[in-house]
Design goal:
- By secondary structure, the chain is mainly α.
- It contains 5 helices and no strands.
- The radius of gyration is 23 Å and the shape is elongated.
- The model has no long low-confidence stretch (mean pLDDT 88).
Amino acid sequence: MRKILNTAHVYMIIGVVSGLYYRELTKAEDFEGDTQLAVVHTHVLALGMLFFLVVLALEKQFTLTGHRLFGWFFWIYNAGLAVTVGMMTLHGTLTVLGRSGGGAIAGIAGLGHVLLTAGLVLLFVTVGKCLPAAARPADTEVSRSKAAAPSASPGSPEGAGS
């Protein structure tokens, strides 16, 4: 759990620093216009810090780190986020400096998005496998029995547990 919390903390720091970088670079270059640097800090804070705080809550509830796929999710997702944010920062910096980025930056950013998607798929598979196995059939049985059973009156013993 500490690893997940530390990851969220690192992304919080990167998010704040990237917002400062955007402000200071555009001010130093007297840049007024649109650049991807404007959204790097929100991407890092949402896809990094907030996302891993949600994963921390899921870890507390389902012990995700005990599953073998968690490590794959963790490293693939982080690699995807690092590549994506790195390319956004590079492209935004080049825009502020008045230079062209070329198609390679977009291609590498696309690879980052693919890694993010693969990481998200691994997270959902991991959460699905960590759900209590005994609860799955019982959920189905409870919903079937409630639909098939006649309603009990509020004062009867059958209605006491409802």
